[in-house]
Input
Amino acid sequence: MTATIPHRTTTARGPGRVRLAADGVRLAYGADVVVDRLDLELTDGSFTAIVGPNGCGKSTLLRALGRLMRPTSGQVVLDGRAITSTPTKDVARVLGMLPQTPVAPEGLTVADLVARGRHPHQSWLRQWSSDDESVVAEALQWTDMAELADRPVDALSGGQRQRAWISMALAQGTDLLLLDEPTTYLDLSHQIDVLELVARLHAERGRTVVVVLHDLNLAARYAHRLVAMKDGVLVAEGTPAEVLTEQLLADVFDLEARVVPDPVTGTPMVVPVRRLNR
Amino acid sequence: MTATQVTPRSGTPEPPQRHPEERPRRVLRAGPLSATYRRRQLTVPVVVLALLVLVSALSIGRGDYPIALTDVLRTMVGLGDPAAEFIVLELRAPRVVVGVLVGIALGLSGALVQTFARNPLASPDVLGVTQGASVGAVAVLALGGGSSAAAGLLGGAGLPLAALVGALATAALVVLLAWRTGIDGYRLVLVGIGISAICTALTDWLLVRADIAEATAAYVWITGSLNARGWDQALPLTLALAVLLPAALVLSRTLGALQFGDDTARSLGIRVTGSQALVLLVAVALAAAAVAAAGPIQFVALVVPQIAVRLTGGSRPPLLASALLGALLVVGADLVARTVLPVALPVGIVTAVLGAPYLIWLLVSRRSRVR
Output
C-alpha cells in the first residue's frame, strides 16, 4: 500500500502563482446584482477567508469561483483558463467545493460518500481502481472517520457529518478547495475541530483553501489572508492584521469594536463594543 | 451508543461493536472492470431471478389444460414432449415473456425517476406517461371509427403507436413546464400531477363520446392487461430494452452523483442539466414502451424501486434488482389475476389493489419520520 493521496497534480504551481482569479466579475440573480466588477487573485498554497456581513455576496462569489454560477460579465480564471470554457470534469479534478450544509441521500454510508469523491477520476469501465480504494481509505483515516465508515451519514452528529464531507473533498484529490461556511450549526469545539482539519489540509497536504466564514476571530486565526466584502464589493484584502482594523469593522460591519492580539496565537481578535447606528 | 453486537471483528483494535445499520463494501474486479458492491446487492437479484423463473413456470402451467410445474420447467430447457412444448412455447410463454419485459421496463423506469427526482413518490405514472398513453389509445379507439378498430385492437399497430406518442408527448409537456434552468424533483411531481389530471379528464370525455363496445375495449386497455399479448408485443419491447437497459446501466454512475443535489453533483464533475435530461429520456422511453405493449399497469414503477431499496439497503433504488422485481410483480400479479380470483381480471387491477395501500403506507410512514 504505497499509493497516497496525490499532493498536487497540475503544473501551474509554486508560491505566488495565481491558481484561481475573479476578473471583473459581475454576479446577478435575474435583475438583482449581488457582486459587481470584483477582482480577486488566489495564489497557489494560500489559505484565504472571505468575511463580510450577511448578504454581502460572499457565498455568491464562492459559488462563481467554484463554477456553480456563471458571471453575467467578467470571468473566473482557473490555471490561466476561463473556468466556464473548461470541461466540468477537468475542473472537478483540480477544484473541489463543499456547499453550505450539503445533504447526503438517506441511507448513504460514510464510505460511500467519500468514495463518490473519486467520481471525476473514474470512467464507466474503470469504476473502482485500487488507487481509488487506497485514496478513500487514507482520506477516511486522515479525517478520523475510518471507524464510522460503514455508518449512514444521516445517523452522524453535525461535527462528524462535516468531517465526512471534508473527507470526501480530500478523496477528490483537488489542489483547490472551496468551503462555504463549513462551521455553520456546529458548537464551538466542533468549529475548532473542523477548522483544524482544514488547516491541516492546507499545511500538510498543500491544498489551496478558500473558506467563507462568519466568525472573524476564527477567520483571523486560521486563514493567512482575509478578504472583506460589503454590498458585493471587495473592501479590503490582506493579512488578518492588515484587514481587521477597528476602522474596517465600523465601515463593513457597522460595529464599534476593539481589536486586541489573540492571547493564544497573537492574531487579531475582535472584541465588540456595540452596534453603530447609521 | 445503542449499537447492538453483530459480529465482533477479531484481531483489530477497532471498537468491537458495530452499528446495526453498517453495511460493509466489497470490491469486484475483472481485468479493467471494477466496481464496489454490498453482498445483498448481489444476493437479492439472484433470489428474485429464481422466484421469477418459478412464478413464470407456475403461470405457464395454469390454464384450461394444466401442465405440471416440472413439465413446464423441462420444456423450458428443451426436454419436454411435443404437445407440452406447443402449449408452453406457442400459446402461453409469449404472455409471460411480455409480462417479464413490461415489468423490467417499469421497474427500471421507476428506479430512474425516483433517484432523479430524489423523491420516492415520483414515478413515470406521476410524469403523466400512463395518462398520456391512455389518451392516445382511447382516442384511436373512440375516434378511429367503428368497432372494427376495437376488434383489431390488440393486433393492430395503430393503438400501441398512439399510446407511445401520447406517453412521449405528455412527458415532454410535463418536463417543459417544470423546467427552470434545470429540473427540481418536487416541481416535476407537482406539474406531473396537474397534467395527469387533465389527461384523465380527456380520457373520460373520449370514453363518454364512444359507443359502448368501444368504451368497453378501451376500458380494459386503460386498466393494463396481458390478455392476448404475444410475440407481436414482445418483439418491439425486446428491441427497446436492448437499447434502454444498457443506457440505464451506464447512467447508474451519474445517478449516484446526481442524488446529492445540483451543487455537489456539479462540483463532482457532472454536467447536471445534460445528465438530468438523459435520465428522464431513458426513463420515459422505458415506461412508454411498457405502456404501448400492455397498457398502463399502475403502481409497478412506483412500488418496485422502494421495495428493492429496502431489500438491498443503500441510498437509492438498485437498477438491476428493481428491473427483476418489476418483472416478478407483473408476472405474479397476472398469475393472481388469472387464477386465484373467480373471474379473470386484467393484471392492472391486481397491481392497483396491491399498490394503493402501499402508497398510503409510504405517505404515512414518511410523514411520521420527518415530523
